[in-house]
Amino acid sequence: MSRTVRWGVLATGGIAATFTAALQGLPDAEVVAVASRTDASARAFADRFSIPRAYGSWAELVADEEVDVVYVATPHSAHYEATALALKAGKHVLCEKAFTLNAGQAAELVELARERGLFLMEAMWTYCNPLVRRMTELVREGAIGEIRTVQADFGFAGDFGADHRLRDPALGGGALLDLGVYPVAFAQLLLGEPDRIQADALLSPEGVDLNTGMLLSWASGANALLSCSIVGHHATAASVVGTAGRMDFPHGFFHPDHFLLTRAGAEPERIESGPGPQGLSGMQFEAAEVMRALRAGETESPLVPLEGSLAVMRTLDAVRDRVGVRYPADDLFPAQVH
Fold first, then answer.
1. What is the mean pLDDT of the chain?
2. Which of helix, strand or coil describes residue 296?
3. Sheet containing 196-203: which strands, arranged edge to edge?
4. Is the dihedral of CA 226, 258, 247, 143 positive or negative?
5. Exposed site from 58, 231, 242, 262, fewest CB < 10 Å?
6. pLDDT value at position 278?
7. What is the pLDDT of residue 334?
């Protein structure tokens, strides 16, 4: 693949706009097309970002021979449909998180990508952040000893009426898939898939989770205390406690600008940089990783491996099972509960 990677953006919502702006800050990325379910929405988005081609259907975008990779920016209820469409058309894909509605859908997408030799990655931008990468390096180096506890929370209170997508089970509503995916992914980045899962939640009348607490445990004795909410403002903080120290992310742990490393018997150190491209903000890190992998001929990223995304989806399935949240998609793609 040439140095310039040509992107197609599938969907025109807020996350698509944020990612497109990030792409346009990279000298080796070119956004060549955008698609929506309507011509008007696609054209308005194309005009806003000076994108050459606008399509009123997803099928037209994935058929565009000048698109190298498709960024799927729909709500997660449509991730399976959109990603499968792109893969079947021979396109590489970066798909937003949560990867899908359940692990059954995710497993089918991974199998499809591998069968066709195509690149597929969940857009877990946290894993590509240089400071998060530095955190994992320090853990591997033994800077805080053996991990014993991870804590992370993500929540905010919004005016989400009964007709909002976050209250609709058919659209994967609730706090867990929108926000809880971040604390779960953070814990599993450090500790892998848990051996035991406990959870409880406040449910809406529609049957989605509004406020959820999770306790994940590992055979090593480590545990993770995680929470998510769409009815309460959380600090969105995280901490990693080990036998010889700790690391604290005071706010915005999923896209940090610093964290504090406290080794046993020492004063806290402020960590402000890590490996990977510097001077970028947010989503440009994951875009840069996709383009690096494509040029290297890789079909998945070592930073955001597909097996890791599948493991996170299995945990989210198990949490939903524990708290009693079901989606209609579970009837077609059985959730994978352990």
1. 95
2. coil
3. 196-203, 209-217, 223-229, 147-155, 238-242, 245-249, 259-263, 269-271
4. positive
5. 231
6. 59
7. 65
Is beta strand 238-242 parallel, antiparallel or unpaired with respect to 223-229?
unpaired
3-class DSSP assignment, residue 232? coil
What does DSSP say about strands 5-10 and 29-35: parallel, antiparallel, or unpaired? parallel
Which residues of the chain are modeled with pLDDT < 70? 1-2, 276-281, 334-338
Strand partners, 93: 70, 120
Which ranges of the chain does DSSP label H, i.e. alpha helix?
A: 14-23, 39-49, 58-63, 79-88, 103-116, 125-128, 130-140, 175, 181-191, 284-295, 306-323, 329-332
Nearest alpha carbon to residue 104 among 310, 296, 315: 310
Six token digits for residue 24: 């346009």
Q: Which helix (H) or strand (E) holds 242?
A: strand 238-242
Which residues are CB-contacts of 13 (< 8 A; sequence separation ≥ 6)?
A: 73, 74, 75
The model carries a pTM of 0.95
Give the pLDDT score at 46: 98
Looking at residue 338, its pLDDT comes to 63
Q: Which residue, 211, 209, 203, is CA-closest to 156? A: 211
Active site members: 97
For the record, the structure tokens of 130 come out as 């240089």
Q: What is the pLDDT of residue 159?
A: 86
What is Dmax (Cα atoms) for the chain? 62
Please report the DSSP string for 305-329 in residue order.
-HHHHHHHHHHHHHHHHHHT---TH
CA 126 to chain centre: 7
